[in-house]
Amino acid sequence: MDSKIVVFICLIGAACASAPLVAARVDPLPQYSYGYDVQDSLTGDYKGHQENRVGDLVTGSYSVVDPDGTKRIVDYSADPLNGFNAVVRREPLVVAAPARVVAPAPYVAPAPYVARAPIVAPAPLVASAPAPVFAARLPSPYYF
């Protein structure tokens, strides 16, 4: 039984070897260029990529904003002679202002203590009753 399997595999191999090869059309100078850029402030997703190819030379770069607030940029190239080469660099998103040299402020002694006059609260207002009004008594012409 094992010899039948070996003979069958040999026959299949011979049939495949005698089949004519189909010639594939190969572009002698492949060329393309593409790129994209994502700027999503809602999710905080910022990235981009661009790539160019001329023949066997491929060059490109991509960038992504890392969680620590820096932008990572990778520039790369690939060819049959040198293989794949990449250079990674990081750039801060916020440009820091140049440091200024500031002289320290001179020492100023605090003002001497001066005692203040005590603050006296005003007397509370008390509503007084209106003064009684007396009508002047005129002599009456009639005496009893």
Task: Please characterize this protein's 3D structure.
The protein is mostly beta strands. It has one helix and five strands; from the N terminus they run αβββββ. Strands 1-2-3-4-5 form a five-stranded antiparallel sheet, with no helix packed on it. β4 and β5 form a beta hairpin. The chain is elongated. It starts with a helix and ends in a 52-residue tail after the last strand.
Task: Please give a handful of descriptors for the protein shown.
about 10% helix, 1 helix, about 35% strand, mainly beta, about 140 residues
What's the gyration radius in Å? 50 Å
Shape: elongated
Low-confidence stretches: none
Terminal residue distance? 167 Å
Give me the secondary-structure category: mainly beta
**Strand coverage percent:** 25-35%
Strand order across the largest sheet:
1-2-3-4-5
Query: Helical proportion?
Result: 10-25%
**Biggest β-sheet description:** 5 strands, antiparallel
Average pLDDT rating: 79
Number of helical regions = 1
Extended strand count: 5
Element order: H for helix, E for strand: HEEEEE
